[in-house]
Amino acid sequence: MHTFHLSGYPRIGAKRELKFAVEAFWKGNTSEAELQQVAADIRRSNWATQQAAGADLLPVGDFSFYDHVLDIQVALGCIPARFGFDAATLTLPEYFQLARGNATQFAMEMTKWFDTNYHYIVPEWHPQTGFKANSKNLIAQIKEARALGHDIKPTLVGPITLLWLGKEKADGFNRLDLLPKLLPEYQKLLRELANEGVDWIQIDEPILAVDADQAWLDAFAPTYKELAITGTRIILGTYFAGVAEHVDLLKNLPVHGLHIDGVRAPEQLAVFAQAWPQNKVLSVGLIDGRNVWRANLSQVIDTLAPLSAKLGNNLWIAPSCSLLHSPQDLAVEEKLDGEIKSWMAFAAQKLVELGVVKQALEHGKDAVKDALAASDAAAADRATNKKIHNQAVQERVANLRPGADARKSPFAQRIEAQQAWMKLPLLPTTTIGSFPQTSEIRQARAAFKKGDLSAADYEAAMKKEIAYCVEEQEKLQIDVPVHGEAERNDMVEYFGEQLAGYCFSQFGWVQSYGSRCVKPPIIFGDVSRPNAMTVFWSTYAQSLTQRPMKGMLTGPVTMFKWSFVRDDIPLSQVCKQIALALNDEVLDLEKAGIKVIQIDEPAIREAMPLKKAQWDEYLAWACESFRLSSTDAEDSTQIHTHMCYSEFNDILPAIASMDADVITIETSRSDMELLTAFGDFKYPNDIGPGVYDIHSPRVPSEAEIEHLLRKAIEVVPVARLWVNPDCGLKTRGWPETIAQLQAMMNVTQKLRAELQS
């Protein structure tokens, strides 16, 4: 029998039950017991769905109240000592404080999980960091699943990847040096699970898919020699890129199996088919865990058949990665176009696909001929359907003139033209774009979508919110205000709704971080802009102030990266199509008098291939696409961009090549660490480092902001320096937002006076 397993399933609930329960708990509106019951109900439902689809081993440890990387830190007793918490007795409120901060401690840093839009809580490593195994939460879930009659396989972040994911918080030591202290406790954790009768454990080491230094690779053999004696069978999990270059290392590790991603790196299948030992499990993921398109099941089965013949029952089948990154169930989607819907599969449908593959491998294609016929028909229809292709869009990209992506003049000339009319003071202030999405805004939007609120009344409601937002910024004396994006549901979804080539689900939510969920648009065809998208709202906001109003757009890389993107043409072509559509909007904004325009690209880093050999190609077309989005803009039009929660140190030449007049970046959680790299690089254009963390509800003290801003002044010429929060403010409430921004403005005015004296 071929084992059908998976490492993770969406944990937010089919209707985002976990999000609402967690947020109610944070507000004190529900008890911990009620929250725990919601969590148990979600786990029970998830396991039942997986078992019904034919899964043999169900994951445990994939559920989390906030983040699975934070969970393994708790399980290993290595949470930051600065909080003063004991991981062994950690309460749920304390757990949330690690991620969200409290009155005395800032939140732990957060960054992207490899090349996904999921954010994990970054471990903090010190030479004194200690470890102490604590398996009680895992064992509780194991018992819970077994009581329901399920065969389980816990999934844990591996010790080497865990160390690699964190950051050193002291000079003069390497976090890999913590491995000798970590390993005994990781062993203890596995032994405690083995004592509960756990047979298989999946230990995920996605560090193998990146270009890690040799020292990290050298750690695998001795590490897994130690873990092999803990009484469990280990399947090592890799995903998001190929690991064929490590085949000799992997086949000789003392583990019982390996999972590889056959969607992101199909070329590695041939290597492992030839080299993998027949007495070890090889798990192959050919069902895409990160996108919404149906698999071509005939092709999947044909690809796996030779491996099945060689490995027999030691061939396991799985999604390419955890289904955490997939929406939960396509069956509840009632408004999707029928043809487009027929090309899709969400998490529940991917499980069914795997069940079909398993049946075909064990009993032949005839046993699943109806399912294969449906899959074949969907693949054929998608390949030829006229809804996908727009010849005019394709020709526009193909016929771009040489140098079409360049601004008319270099930055030094542009900034003079911009300052001539903007007349900004030293340390100009702005925000990143969004302001609080209040319950009134959400209710009005929901009523409008349901038809319970007329278009005129909806417009009036949004204008009222925009006017309030502009008024508050006037009171604060923010130099370059924004309209607050009251009319926008999501920074990608809002634009996708107005672009041809996009479609939308009703319930296709995925977790971004904590209780934050996003519903990514779906790019199914060629992209164009039928009509102006933001001009109406931006010009209304500009009419309310004499200050230069900043128009807000989402950049081309982020537009595809934070969508479920079509996989039938190269990403570079999708990106350029979006860039040209955005350029139409930039030029219309400019004509309407909006001459400060921010084109956000927070996904520029996360969209990078995990293999460095592919970076140059990606960065070339990604940065070209950004430049295309503002091509032909006048010198006096100031183009901003924003990037958050990513590392840029090793790609700063590419970031500079984007040639935005102003870049704003997240720096507060890292204590301006990232800005130092920009200073050392001598970044040529204006830059706005974030001076406070918007993901925490706490109001920073003026001393904290002043500390960060003074550090910024030390590394960036003050004439090139802007002041702003880390990111958008949509998740915050108005009282804390005003207090946070007032603190920022007070410090800015103090330093302006000091610098000008």
Textual characterization of the structure:
This protein has 757 residues and is of the alpha/beta class. The chain has two domains: 17-384, TIM Barrel, CATH 3.20.20.210; 428-756, TIM Barrel (Alpha-Beta Barrel), CATH 3.20.20. The protein contains 28 helices and 20 strands. A seven-stranded parallel beta sheet has the order 1-5-7-8-9-10-11. The protein has a five-stranded parallel beta sheet with strand order 16-17-18-19-20. Strands 2-3 form a two-stranded antiparallel sheet. Helix 24 links the parallel strand 17 (596-600) and strand 18. Helix 16 (391-398) packs across helix 23 (571-591). The longest helix has 23 residues, at 734-756. The chain is globular, with a radius of gyration of 26 Å. The N and C termini lie far apart (79 Å). The relative contact order is 0.09. The model has no long low-confidence stretch (mean pLDDT 95).
Task: Give the topology, please.
Blueprint: H1 17-26, H2 32-52, E1 58-60, H3 68-75, H4 92-100, E2 110-112, E3 119-121, E4 124-125, H5 136-147, E5 152-157, H6 159-165, E6 167-168, H7 179-195, E7 200-204, H8 214-218, H9 220-227, E8 233-237, H10 247-252, E9 257-261, H11 268-275, E10 281-287, H12 297-311, E11 315-319, H13 338-341, H14 347-363, H15 369-384, H16 391-398, H17 411-422, H18 439-450, H19 455-476, H20 493-496, E12 500-503, E13 510-513, E14 516-518, E15 522-528, H21 535-542, E16 550-554, H22 556-561, H23 571-591, E17 596-600, H24 615-629, E18 638-643, H25 652-657, E19 662-665, H26 673-681, E20 686-689, H27 702-715, H28 734-756
Parallel strand pairs: 1-5, 4-6, 5-7, 7-8, 8-9, 9-10, 10-11, 16-17, 17-18, 18-19, 19-20
Antiparallel strand pairs: 2-3, 12-15, 13-14
